[in-house]
Specification:
With 150 residues, this protein is mostly helical. It has 6 helices and no strands.
């Protein structure tokens, strides 16, 4: 039976969709953290001691929650399964390469790194491309650790 839902969809649009999602999330996260830092500087300008704002406390949980919901919705639409194997490493390990890229070359490097990270982990879902996806993600993680701790 050749129904459209029974035919396998090509992998390239799925991985490209994951890359675009990773780039948007990485760029948005970098801009959000820059805004939080600017807001914190303005709010704590007159304070000599330790100063925390609501945005300081809520920035990381808000970022993780937004990324989790976005990845679950987008990956469901793209047909990337199992999401449980892809989404947690994408969220939990992504700050390392993103921080290294942003510290080294700025916002655009972090955006490109987010796209590469998301596409490598999405590529690892299919058994045919699992070695390539995991190797690429591991190389990106290792390069970012060398950059951060050098």
């Amino acid at each position: 039976m050749n129904t459209p839902s029974a035919e396998p969809r090509p992998i390239a649009p799925r991985v490209s969709g994951a890359a675009v999602t990773g780039a948007v999330l990485a760029g948005g996260t970098c801009l959000f953290f820059a805004w939080v830092e600017e807001h914190n500087d303005q709010a704590c300008e007159t304070t000599d001691g330790l100063c925390f704002t609501w945005w300081d406390v809520a920035a990381i949980p808000l970022t993780f929650a937004t990324a989790l919901i976005t990845l679950i919705v987008v990956y469901k639409q793209l047909g990337i399964r199992p999401r449980l194997a892809v989404v947690p490493p994408t969220i939990l390990l992504a700050p390392i390469p993103l921080a290294a890229a942003q510290a080294t070359a700025g916002l655009w490097a972090a955006t490109i790194t987010g796209a590469a990270w998301a596409s490598f982990l999405a590529l690892a879902v299919w058994s045919r491309y699992r070695i390539l996806g995991l190797s690429g993600a591991a190389a990106l993680l290792l390069a970012s650790l060398v950059t951060v701790y050098r």
